[in-house]
Model the fold of this input.
Amino acid sequence: MKLFAIVPVRSGSKGLPGKNLKRLGGVALWERAVAHGLQAGAEVLVTTDNVDILGQGAREGVRIIERPAELAMDATPMDPVMMHVLEHIDGPAQVVLLQPTSPMRIQEDIAACVALHASGRFDLVKTLTMADAGILKYGTMEDGRFVPVSDPAYCFTNRQNLPSVMKPNGAVYVFDKDWFLQNGGFATDRIGGVVMPPERSFDIDTEADFARAEALLT
Done:
């Protein structure tokens, strides 16, 4: 099955204007994601509303797809963006989503996700990192009633005795094109995970995030 990498590059950003085009280590964030896709052996599809990127046109191994304005809003979820891009892929395909704002991934992360997905055990594979287990003590409120997010016993368990908790870090997602189109999005209860260390697991959304990434890179 052919491997495709999708790099979503939206022009707008409230937290850090133009963040996808900012240079980290001399390379724009979106170009860094494209390089990760190419190094993984994938054909790369860049979905964007940025006129400068659109003006570059296709190059070897990389296609630029114009994203409709209605799919480039601040509140636009990733599901319809992916649905639009996947229409440009013919035949069966294994797809890797590489978001520019998660630049600290390495090839081993991508390869591990691709291999785990290829095992057929999961609909979707994504990268994860360790999170504060204290979240297991949390809950929601429903008409004055506290509803635990997990086992009610965890609300009264010492933090050091709680099980490990993982959270998505946004670096890598892998799925089958036809499955995604039929499923209508990412939601599934068959999700595999590849763990990445905390120092490479953060999303750039502010100037402070960008400065931290620069410090780690150097």
